[in-house]
Amino acid sequence: MTTLESLQPHDVLRFFEILSNIPRGSENEKQAADWVVNFAEERGLTAFQDDERRAGMIEQMLRNDPRPPPRARLAARVALIRKQGFEEHVSDTLPGITVLCFPIVDRGGHAVATLTQPYLHQRDVTVSVAKARLAHQRIAAAISLELGAFAGETESP
Fold this sequence. Notes:
Blueprint: H1 10-20, H2 30-42, H3 51-64, H4 71-84, E1 87-90, E2 97-105, E3 111-120, H5 129-146
Antiparallel strand pairs: 1-2, 2-3
């Protein structure tokens, strides 16, 4: 039995264990960052690693939005997610969905991906948005720690 097998939820922790097993040394997070981006893209999620790719993703988001915001507002929104540590908003396109979004951060403090959860309020679900947000934040912080984020800080977010 691996260290994480007894923990819940199994799927999230299985992916975390895969990521944890990717070798990376000091200042060498590219393979892990590539894995996170590929993981997101395979599932139709938005992820980026660098300024050029971030600009391309913003272009793609603008193209795919039936009512796109101004580019500057979208770029500011992406920057705000990084600054405050997460974004939570009611979906513009899907009624009843609350979008929770946390950046995955590398050792340099740069967002290398974004972990996003569309939370659907349901009658029989006992997990509140607040509990989902906290779990989501913990997973994003754990992945970031594996990438070397928060090194030298006394606490992680």
